[in-house]
Amino acid sequence: MADKPAPVVITARAGQPRTPAVEISPREIGLLVDRFYSEIRAHPRLGPLFEDRLAGKWDVHLDRMNRFWRSVLLHSGEYSGQPVVKHNGLPDLEEDDFRLWLELFEATTATLFAPPTAGPIVVIARRIARSLWLARFGTPFSQTPAWLA
Ligand code: HEM
């Protein structure tokens, strides 16, 4: 019998060159994470998807998401985790939820940052969203929706 494939682990390695991907400070990333997840929690469709997993554990999640975004945007090397496994394990997640997530993320970054900062953050978020969407909903025959392009 074939071995089960090992789960994909995303690790931002310490020791890599640390040129930031975007001109943003850790404090600004903190603002983005706080604001975005308070919008998420108030969202009629997305709120419950998060609450089902994170009730009583929001502090841990927000800390993890700060480390995630600092690793992605500043190459800080602080995040290690299994986002694909985590998202594939959300039973009620639907394809269109990623569109709602991106809409909210784009609106939040636009209220906090000027276009030269907000633009690249959204491009990076969309790229990650696309890979999570493909891992969950993609088949050899499916096309990604236009809003993920
Ligand atoms: C509809 C879209 C999404 C939903 C409903 C969703 C929901 C969730 C939930 C409930 C968790 C916590 C899982 C757990 O701890 O058991 C989580 C974790 C996470 N999410 Fe999402 N998410 C979405 C999209 C995204 C996108 C687009 C990104 C990145 C740009 C992202 C990045 C992450 C990361 C990094 C974690 C932490 C994984 C870990 O290391 O444990 N998510 N998400």
Description:
The protein has 6 helices and 2 strands, in the order E-H-H-H-E-H-H-H. It is globular. The protein has a two-stranded antiparallel ribbon. The chain starts with 9 loop residues before the first strand and ends in a 12-residue tail after the last helix. Helix 1 crosses helix 2. It has 149 residues and is mainly alpha-helical. Protoporphyrin IX containing FE binds next to helix 2, helix 3, helix 4, helix 5 and helix 6.
What order do the helices and strands come in, and which of them pair?
Elements: E1 10-11, H1 26-42, H2 46-54, H3 58-74, E2 80-81, H4 83-88, H5 97-112, H6 115-137
Helix pairs in contact: 1-2, 1-3, 1-5, 5-6
Question: Features of this protein?
Answer:
two-stranded antiparallel sheet; Globin-like; binds protoporphyrin IX containing FE
* Residues in helix, %: 55-70%
Main sheet properties: 2 strands, antiparallel
Structural class: mainly alpha
Number of helices: 6
Give the overall silhouette: globular
Radius of gyration: 16 Å
How would you name the oligomeric state of the polypeptide chains in this document? single chain
What is the architecture at the second tier of CATH? Orthogonal Bundle
DSSP strand (E) fraction?
under 5%
Quick one: how many beta strands? 2
Assigned CATH class: Mainly Alpha
> At the fourth CATH level, what is the homologous superfamily?
Globins
Unreliable spans: none
Q: Average pLDDT across residues?
A: 91
Placed side by side, the strands forming the largest sheet appear as: 1-2
